[in-house]
Amino acid sequence: MNHDDKPASRHLMGPDPKELDSFPELSRKAPRLIVYNGKDKLDTRHDIVGKRGYTAGFQGLVRLCMQHMPQNEVVENALRRTVPLFPERAMREVIANALIHQDFEESGTGPIIEIYANRIEVSNPDVPVVPVERFIDGHKSRNERLAWIMRQLKICEERSSGVDRVVSAAEMYQLPAPEFISAHNSTLVVVHGHRMFKDMTQDDKVRACYQHCVLRYVVREQMTNDSLRNRFGLADSSNAAVSKIIRYTLDANLISVDPTAGSSRKYARYVPSWSVSN
Fold this sequence. Notes:
278 residues, Heat Shock Protein 90, Arc Repressor Mutant, subunit A, six-stranded mixed sheet, two-stranded antiparallel ribbon, 9 helices
């Protein structure tokens, strides 16, 4: 092979389509992963900015997040084992949603994943197009073309199931309910690590009650005292404590008594308030 037969250099071939730096208008939209040593921002362990495009780099980004994920100890069948703070399948959904639903017109910022010792915070530019209280049952893509492409590549689904999986994972692992927050020009998802029921705040419990009620509603079932007690992993003797959480959530106008269930308090069923008012 003579010099004329050598492959062209990357410079001569032009920009690499898999690298965000090849597209100056998108380079600031690269996902950023920040890992802290504690529960605040005072001590940063890693600050990594992604270089690859969303589809080419998605699997690597998820693996990197799981690599730096805090670990929890759980006891199953009298055996203690270590598990990630949040399961990978649900983490994929949180990251994919941040990439897909960001506002590309918002300059100077992109998706950020922050991993703390006790929680994970994932944010993307601009406020959500669906009210945060309707994330579980509602769906609207800000970037339909990107969502379609990522669905074709099996990265996400366009069926409004991503948030369902995140909330369902929190219930399955009996974690505090995730928070969905519309902040100043951004959407923030906070995934909390394990806390005992007694250590959860009233806001944690009310949020879990509401999310559990919506999850039941979207599968055409109603929340009951028993179903919520099971969500928290509590014994039968905790019915009074669970009833108190339901009362707080009713007072916050987040849920309503199912109007089709009759007047029996013992067999009361509950639905999201918006399902009754609408």
